[in-house]
Amino acid sequence: MATSTCAICATPCPPVFRPPPPELSPDLDRRPGEPTRSTLAQWLLACEGCGAVAPDLSKLPEGRAEIVESEAYLSLAARPPEATPFLRFAMLCRPGDRAGAFLQAAWAADDANDEDAARHYRREAAAHWGEPDGADSALRLVDVLRRAGMFTTAEEVASVVAEGAPDERSQAILAYQRARIAEGDAARHLMSSALRPPARTPHVAQKQADRKGFLSRLLGR
Length: 221
Hints:
- This protein is mainly α.
- The protein has helices spanning 65-68, 71-74, 84-92, 98-111, 115-127, 135-147, 151-163, 168-182, 191-194, 214-218; strands at residues 45-46, 53-54.
- The protein starts with 44 loop residues before the first strand and ends with a helix.
């Protein structure tokens, strides 16, 4: 088998990390349950040659050499330190992947019990979310906003999702989320709390949210 190389500097890189499948319920933002959850620090690889960070170093977009050599990249020191790789990946990845990178930085902050940092990275994730491509994406955004303490915006997005006539499963998740929003609850909640029987794997809804473009305007994008 040919050895993969970094797309930026051609240094040989290790194979992509394959986490074990989750056995427990995911969070409402789709962070997988254990044992996958505890492998977060292994999801990104760091190139020994140039310092690039990505899940797959061989598939970084073109034109990223200047970024990894920049002072902003090299001097990046996140709080907590465990979030640094995810923020570096946010600088290198395609625009459509940045929301996910910031959300994973928030997960790293969660694990370090740094609530302020986690809230900040969730706000960054929401700012980069773009237009949700369906009910599942929109429901994840609702959770990101709720956990960021952006309750008014979370409820506004939830209202748009409700108008899109989501399926029964999505309706259950939405009702649970709106109850938490009404209580001003920014805590972590499991998918199994919103659904019966407990959910073990992320669900991809098929219905599209109506009023395409409204959520982007709502978020100032």
